[in-house]
Amino acid sequence: MTQLLPLSADEVLATTRAVRKRLDFDRPVEDEVLRECLELALQAPSGSNAQSWRFVVVTDPDKKQALGELYRQAFDIYEQLDGINAATIYRGDDPERLDQQQRVMGSARYLAERMGEVPAMLVPCMPGRTDAAPPVSAAAAYGSILPAVWSFMLAGRARGLGTSWTTLHLMFEQQAAEILGIPFEAWTQVALVSVGYTKGTDFKRATREPLETAVSFNGWDFDD
Fold first, then answer.
1. Domains observed in the chain
2. Which of 133-137, 147-151, 188-192 is least confident?
3. Pairing between β-strand 187-189 and β-strand 120-127 as defined by DSSP bridges
4. 7-23: per-residue pLDDT in tens?
5. Quick one: which of 120, 164, 156, 154 has its CA closest to 29?
6. What is the pTM of this model?
7. DSSP letters along 55-101, please?
């Protein structure tokens, strides 16, 4: 069993950051550590307890480089198309948030340029295609695998690993499927999670909006 960081469950939950610039690109991640994280991921709930997930771990340098190139191309598109990034880019006028957004975009570009060098990648997959599925079916499908991937990322944090949930490579999902031998018509890729040890483990709570702006009880009570 890998030695864990001295963090409580609450501390792991509050300090699992998207790690980009603080990844140690030169230190391999042992298969044993990845397996420990995946064992915990498989303990996550899934719809009807189907457990119909598949996880492709990528450590082969050539395959990582190929996926990294797809990701870099997708990031170039992402930076240019407002319709794609509108849901993830802060559009307000708070100077602190704008400054934070600029730092995030800078670190995201840094990872895009070096994605092919990350020590390991995780590509979670779910059965079928959701392209034309009704919302209830798509929600059930994603809800049956996202908890497992987040559990993997939390387990990684507890072991000194940094991860970042990315989805931009899905612009080229079929090409990624060909690189990894994933049956494209039968399995949907959900994300590409970068994995590596971090430079230092002293991650802090992030600056977030006040709870009152994000939560209401017993109905929609928001200005927007």
1. 9-206 (3.40.109.10)
2. 133-137
3. antiparallel
4. 999 999 999 999 999 99
5. 120
6. 0.91
7. EEEE--HHHHHHHHHHHHHHHHHHHH-HHHHTTTS--S--HHHHHHH
